[in-house]
Structures are given as structure tokens and as C-alpha cells.
Amino acid sequence: MLASLSIRDIVLIEKLDLTLSDGLTVLTGETGAGKSILLDSVSLALGGRGDGALVRHGQVKGQVTLAFDLSPDHPAHAILAAADLPDEDQLVIRRTQMADGRTRASVNEEAVSVQTLRLIGASLVELHGQHADRALVDPASHRALLDAYGGLAADVAALGGLWRRWREARESARDERRRLETAEKEADYIRHAVEELTALGPEPGEEAALSERRSAMMRAEKIAADLSEALDAVSGGASPIPSLSAAVRRLERRAGESQDLIRPAVEAIDQALDALELARGHLESALADADFEPRELEKIEERLFALRAAARKYAVSPDALPEVAARFAAQIEQLDQSEARLARLDAAAAEAEAAYRGAAGRLSQARVAAAAALDGAVGAELPPLKLERAEFLTKVVSDPGAAGPEGYDGVEFWVRTNPGSRPGPMMKVASGGELARFLLALKVVLADRGSAPTLIFDEIDTGVGGAVADAIGQRLARLSRKVQVLCVTHAPQVAARAHHHLLIAKDTANPADAALPLGEAPVTTRVAPLTPALRREEIARMLAGATVTSEARAAADRLLKAAR
Question: What is the pTM of this model?
Fold first, then answer.
């Protein structure tokens, strides 16, 4: 509940500190005393639109501070946690209005945006006037109010889970269908790639191994040519061995004629022939070691060309070709399995949709039943409020095509103000006074369900009196058993039923300034709690007007006694 209210330099209020209690608190006073200023201040603190004109004349800023005592399960705790704001024993909201139009806001001394302030404020206080009831103006809130009245919060939460499950299943099926469509467009290319790479059969590191083998074979080919040329020089057609052998034989035939002269030359030639023979053997051995199959080199070069051409085609390195082949093969396998997978996902989505629609249908039926009960409960409150010929209607419109996490029902509060007239949305059909009374009846019924813990009513009794005003007072008192109620009123019947009575009055800011010319003395609005005697006098004034008579005091006594 709202525990305290402090205002500094707002319009006619110089300084005001109020401690508030639970139950029904009424604020009364002469017209123009400043009741609207008080409500404007509260609205500002809750995130209402700022205006530099609100700052008291001659001041640079004004400030409004609201302190709330919250129950442990109040929704504001979750809002504070989500906004990373301190959650203390008491929730303190402060709004500073600068004279130049700028504003600052804080919650528990932490600066916040106006949007966050409004979110928190909406969970704490509802401001209700004849023409400014947000809950009635915005049909988006009507479904939540009906669900709260019907005790359907758990059903709505469960339906939200089914909605998310259906949405996820639907998205999974849609994603799979897109993948399948994309894959089918590329299927021919992928299958050709798999066939090509399967036939090629690339292996990791194969390109480097073939390149090294090719280089080695090319080096060997060059060396073999040199060895073959050398061998041909030693033992081929140009070899000197036959000539030298013939020369040795001729010399040996002449050896008998001159042994000493021929022998050294023959021995030298024999040594040369032995050296040439040894060289021939070495050359033949080296040539055998360097021997290779030219066809093998050709095959290696063809393989390298194929690998490198495939690598260029698929824009990867030759070593990555096995990975590409595996990926394409997996895509083909996935493509082959996609239709079966898609069928399973479509079945899961259909199952999730059926579960959601079944629960949504049951929730819709429960809402229709709750709407009938709500209409009856609100209707029972209308006759004492001089709306005995009026009818309250909770319109539930179901559209399965507009499914969402909270179902597919649209809910809006309608009224019929007179028999035979056409019903319509409450805000459009009801007049200002009727709207306020419809609102009160609705709030009495919804007091402990779907309501902020503090309700503020601004002159809800305007235009009524006597029994109707008393009926309004009774309902405000009933409402205050479950929530804190503050009411600005001109009706003595309402004021008599309050648990707490505050008087709003104008006063000179500084009575010592009596020397000021007439009409120039500063004026302030003051608010003070009334003692029982002063309260009796104020109710008598509300009954009698400017001159309080003994009859008015007696009537005030009767009202107070009846209220007790």
C-alpha cells in the first residue's frame, strides 16, 4: 500500500508530508482548494507527463516522493529484479520536475527511465477518474481482468507453454522444409560432385606425396640420361675398348721381336682397358639404380593434374578434397532422409497444434463461463448505484485464426445503459458519471483479483447524491477491506464511511506577511487529518454549505452513526 506521500513546491503546495494507512481514506475540501493538484502530483510520481508549469512559482524545481509497503508476492518485486533495481523493505519512488520542463525519476534512489517508472507505478496504484480510467479505456487489459476473476491464470500459463511448443515445432518443420527445398535445387550438382569425387578417390596428403615422387623421378631421368651417355662413351659404338684391344693384340704379336720396348706399352694399355671395364660396370650399376618406368611418371602427372583441377573446381586445397567429398555425401544422405524427417516434424507440429487448440478451446469456454459470472456479479452492484436499467456485458469474441500465447479470445467490457438501446464499448456508451459507477461496480467485484493494491478515485460521486452517494460510499468501504482506497469526494455520504479523513484547504504561505497588498499574499494548499470533532464539522459543511447549522451537524452525526 501507499505508506507516505511527500510533495515539495508543486503548484500551490509548498511542503506536504502525509502518512497514509490502509482502508478507505477520503480527501475533502472546498472547490479550488487543491485536490486536483494532489492527484496531479501522484500521477507525476507514477510516470505521468511532466510539465514545468507544475513547479511552484519562483522555484526551480518541484518534487514528489511516494513510499510503498509491499507484500512479499507483489509483482513489483519481479519488475525491480528485471530492471536490476534494489529491492528493499520499502519501495520509494521519487520524481523531480524542473521549471524548464525536464524531469528526473528514481526508484530506491536509483535513476530510472520514465518507461520503467510507469511500469512499476502501474503495478502499485490505479488512478480512476470519470474520464481517465486506463483499465477501461484499453481493452487489452480486459482479458487479463476476466482471467483474474475466473481464476484462469494457471490455465493461461499452461496454454502459453503449449503455444511455445507448437511454435517451436512449427519453426523446426519450416526450417527443415526450407533446407529440403534448397537441397533439392542443388541435388543434381551435389550428386554429380559425389560421383566425380568418389571416382577420383582423393586421399589426405596424396598431392604432396605425388609431387615429391614426381620430382624424384624427374631428377632420376636427368641423371639416367647422363649415365647412359657416359656408358655409351665407355662401351658403346664410340668406345675405345675395341681399338685398344686390337692394338694390344698387335703389340703382343710383336713382343718377341722387342720385348723390352713393347711390354711397358702393353701393360699400360691393359690397365686402361681394365679401368674402362671397371667404369662400364659402375655405369651400368648406376644406370640400373636410376632406372624408372616412364609410364609411371606419366600416370603421376595425370593424377596430379586431376587432383589440382578438382581442387580448383571446388575452391579448396587438394588435401581438403576428401572432406568435400564426405560433406557432399552427407548432404546426399541428408537429402535422402529429409522427406522422412520432414514428415516426422510435420506430425509433431500437428500434434502440438492439436494440443494447443484443445487447451485454447477449453480456456475459451471457461472465459465464456467466467464472463457470465462476472456480468452477474457486476450487474448485482448496479441497481444501488442508480444503474438499475443498465446492463454490463463482457464480450468474448473467439478467432482461432488469431491464436497467441494467451489463446485466441478477444475480451472487451460493453454496457447497455437503457433497455432497448444498442450495447457498445463501455468508454463509448457510458457518460462520465455512469462510467465512474460502472467502474466502481467492476472494481468491487475484482477487488482481490487483477487490481493494484492502491486505488485512487477522483470525484467518483460527481452528479449523484442521497441514496446513490451512500451506495457509492458503501462500495468504496467494501473495496477498502481488500485494497487501500483513496477517494477525493464532495459527497458527505461517502466521507462518512471513510476510515481516515483528510481536509484539503488553502492558506497563506506566511501569515506574518500581513503588510502585503491585498491579493498578493502567497497561497499554499495544506492537507491535514481531521479529529472526530473536526470531521463531524467538515461533513456538516459538506451537507449545509457555507453556513453550518445545528441541523447539518445533527445530519452529520446520523451519517457517521449509520456508517459505523
Answer: 0.67
